[in-house]
Amino acid sequence: MYRFSNSLPYLLARLGVRMGDLFVRVIRHEKLTLPMYRVLAALSEQGHALRLGEIAELTSADVSTLSRIVADMSRTGLLTRDRPEHDQRSLQVALTPKGAELASRLMPIAQYYEEVATGEMTVKEAAELKAVLVELYKNLDRLEQEVEAGLIMVPSPAAPKGAREPKSDAKGSAGQRRKLSKK
User: Is residue 165 part of a domain?
Assistant: First the structure.
């Protein structure tokens, strides 16, 4: 039987929200939000400039939100935004030295959070858990295809006992009620 409180999405969200909230309590002193940290970490980890779409993929952020975040971070001197001459539609985002330095101070804190969260797990067990989480994420590609194809829908409410489905007239106005004038 399905139980919300024991469902995988709920348990994963609960963990992520709690870790995120605890991490934000520390990084807010640097005037950062969690999405801003994710941008810094993604750029730091890759070690080179990335297009906005690549950052969106790495951080699970939508491009329009990410565009505003990157603009704010650029204004504070953490990032640069450049349009390459060969592709004026593309936006290349890179860490400034200030951004790289901040990322290098924050990433060990994130690593510590992970160590605390994994508790008594061995390094191998933690790696296996991460591998399972990556696999679960990939499995959602199938679900996305099914949703996009309209194969998954909320069922209609059950009709009360004895009720019948409304019949459709020639114009297809099934279930529509006519307004009756009061006389």
Answer: no
